[in-house]
Amino acid sequence: MKIPSIRSIQSQLIFYFTLAILVPAGITTLVGMKLIYDQVITRAETKTISDMNSAREIYRNRIAQIEGITRLTAGRSLIVDALARGDLAFLQTEIRKTLERERLDALTLVDARGIVVARGSNPAVYGDTLVADPLIARVLRTRGTVSGTDIVPHNVLEKESPALAKQATMAVIPTPKAKPRESVVETSGMMLKAAVPLVDATGRFLGVLSGGILLNRNFELVDKINEIVHEHEVYNGRDIGTATIFQGDLRISTNVRNEDGSRAISTLVSDEVADAVLVRGERWVGDAFVVNAWYITAYMPIRDIENRIAGMLYVGILKQPFIDIVWKTLLLFLGIALGGILLVVAVAVLQARRISRPLKTLEGVARLIADGDYTREVTVKAPEEIEHLAGSINQMAKKLEEEKRDLEEWAATLERKVKERTDQIKNIDAQLFRSEKLASLGKLAAGVAHEINNPLTGILTNSSLLLEDLDPGDSRREDVDVIVKETIRCREIVKRLLDFAKQTKPQKRPTNVNDLIDNIILLVRNQTSFRNIDIQRQLAPELPDILADADQMQQVFINIILNAADAMSKGGKLVIRSSLSASGDAIMVSFADTGPGISEENRERIFDPFFTTKEHGTGLGLSISYGIVEQHGGTIRVESTVGQGSIFSVELPVMGADTEGN
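Below the sequence we write its predicted structure tokens.
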């Protein structure tokens, strides 16, 4: 072969390197594909043989199950005694019940002469002889249990049950590659049967009980084989495994599907398989086109109790998955070869650009550094001078990055400190504003309360006297009663105003917060508003005392607890916690309820005097509580989520932590 003239180094490298990899890659692919195909098919055939062994055991186990059912039934003393005394009515009833309960197709009892005594599936027919039945004949002859496969003639099936005879009748469907059949309709049936002798307590032989299941159009066994052996595995919408039972060369039970999804019964096996299995009695393993797809299959003969071949058991694995594996492997090999070619081309191009590429890389990194990106580090394989230049650029970028990081950290620290100081100033301003507002409102409230209290006293006194003077039936009595009640309510509001205005200096004494909370719970737990509220205490033990006015702190806690009860009018949970702060200089008390929560707009005004969301509230309870806590050198705050509840937290300094001077 004449190689075309190639002048450039880059072209020569690409051409010769590509040629060097294409030839061995092609040879390796062809040889590898042949080896892989042989291995895949061999392993598939091995698995099919293993599946056949499993299917054979499932088939035998089903026969053993029928034998066990028949043996247990024949051993029942009620049936033995009834047969001994000739109670046909009882026997027919019990045999029919047993057949239905154990889901058998046939259960027949004959006497010691082979005369039918009772049929479970057709009780009306009895008195005929079954001495021609091979299983019953052997039991009559040997007095031993026998089980296996039997081909049952149409007339016998008719006597057992016309439905069984109809189930067994199949019109043979002509099948390609199958041996032509003389009969176009199969009327006999293939049954799994067991026959058990019945003997009385003295050992006297009384008769035979025969039970069986018809395999024609019965898909329970093949589906169970598919479930156990192939686990219903599906490939491209088709079951990967199939199982079939043949009566002779006729497919009588299968999970192989036609194109329309129906089961492919009444079709015939190929002539090649029939000759190997049915004629020569051999096991056949190989590829087979089953109905509409290629399978890797295994067939084995099914023999009756006389060792005659009655049919075949078949298992198969869809061949397409294995073919797809071979094709995927081929594509993988081709991909590897293509990758090798591309790699060779890439190496050739890299060699051709060995000098210019490092310089372009350095140029790009220099531009990034100029744009402020100092994190790039360049590494090149090039002549010594270019490598030294790359090292110098890397050192410069690192220095610039360090200086940039220091500046960013300093700026972040400064910003954080400014924010913290700003927040502190805002909190101080808010506290000062609230304290000044409370003091001003206190003075105003005191003046208003004193001015209102005297007229209210007169109104209450005169209205009470007027109420006493009115007759019980007087129509004005109800209106006067309203005046008395509302005047009393106004007096209570005035009293709260006076309490708010006084802000009595607390009489501080060493006080234990946990004891205070326990006393409060004893006071409120039996009130009507707390009947549907679950109060839970989570109090830290051995808390240090606080220096506080116990009565005022009790007023604060009771006010918070009553507000929580009002918020949970339909019931809920109130969790009261106490704990020592992390620094050890304050006691934390929190009240968490499961009420509707407080909106953000209301949270900002909740401690303002006269602000309330209650229909008959005064809006002074939390304002008074705020003032009391403030006089004790503590803080009170609220956290709330709408729809989830609220948490009121009170923080009070422990005794000795800046409290003695207060």
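The domain at 1-352 is CATH 3.30.450.220 (Beta-Lactamase).
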